[in-house]
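Spend some time on this chain, tokens included, and walk me through the fold:

. . .
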Amino acid sequence: MSALDSAAKGEIIAKHRTHENDSGSPEVQIAILTARIERLSKHFETHREDKHSKRGMLALISQRKRQLAYLKSESPARYRATLAALGLRK
């Protein structure tokens, strides 16, 4: 289990950026956090007792939740578009 490699991270940034040089908008940050959370979720399928990584994943989930709340308060349209693009909140 390792962090996202630069190629995967680059793909995520390219897909969710709002302009050419964007790498830190809320949409990009939420997409990167979602990818990391999904990767950790797969890790827990085989390593159920990994409590340290579980704590880290809960921190990522909290961070994503704060980013989503910020985006919802700033721009509800971008918030809904981000949820749809990432498949969150079914």
